[in-house]
Specification:
Distance between the termini: 20 Å
Largest sheet: 6 strands, mixed
Radius of gyration: 16 Å
Structural class: mainly beta
Number of helices: 3
Helix content: under 10%
């Protein structure tokens, strides 16, 4: 990992699904069909296990059974102290800092029950350097840019979420405890861009940092 990033020894990295209002709205009536028949009422989480972790500068392998991967630029909340049943007033006190994350996925049509086959490929969670909480004035108002081969292909921000950073922490810790070293992402914005082998992906989050990775074909590794 990066010299400035302290990997969560014994920690867990959690992704959050459908936490961007525009991404949720884009699903339209799909959220009302079986099996759930309604929009989600609680955070939808999944795990990015140890095999997915990578750092800025690492090559990301594109599996031979897919042409492109989805670049999921997102902000990671690094938990600094045990967090259980937090309130909006104290939630951020349990955040030690932030990291730039690329929650890479194999593109898929279904958004139900995120498949480990699509979300947990080796090296599919590159993370940037750790930035302490005090360095970020408002984690809900940070510009996010994704560039492919030096050309910006997505401009978004950390706002527009169904749950703000504090509210996400409140709702998650209502039913589970987060421990020091855990990382909780705020979720990927709508219209995450696609990239293929041979392309260079740069993700920048205002005030947090930059993440750079090159995609390579599986057969070339």
């Amino acid at each position: 990992m990066s010299n400035n990033f302290q990997p969560p020894i014994g920690g867990t990295i959690y992704g959050t699904l459908l936490n961007h209002r525009e991404a949720l709205a884009a699903l339209g009536d799909q959220v009302n069909v079986a099996p759930y028949k309604a929009p989600p009422k609680a955070p939808i989480l999944y795990i990015k296990p140890r095999n997915t972790w990578a750092q800025s500068g690492d090559a990301v392998v594109v599996p031979s059974d897919t042409l492109e991967l989805q670049m999921g630029a997102t902000l990671g909340l690094v938990i600094g102290s045990t967090a259980c049943k937090l309130t909006a007033a104290n939630a951020l006190n349990h955040v030690a800092g932030f990291v730039v994350m690329n929650d890479i996925s194999v593109p898929r049509d279904s958004f139900y029950r995120p498949s480990m086959r699509f979300k947990c490929r080796d090296g599919s969670c590159p993370m940037g350097a750790y930035v302490p909480r005090d360095a970020v004035a408002n984690p809900d108002a940070l510009a996010v840019t994704v560039a492919i081969d030096g050309v910006a292909v997505q401009h978004t921000d950390t706002g527009g979420r169904v749950r703000s950073v504090a509210q996400l922490l409140v709702d998650v810790t209502e039913f589970m405890t987060l421990h020091p070293g855990d990382i909780l992402s705020i979720g990927v914005a709508a219209h995450a861009p696609l990239a293929r082998a041979g392309q260079h992906v740069t993700i920048t989050i205002e005030g947090v940092g930059q993440l750079d990775n090159v995609l390579v074909a599986e057969e070339s590794v």
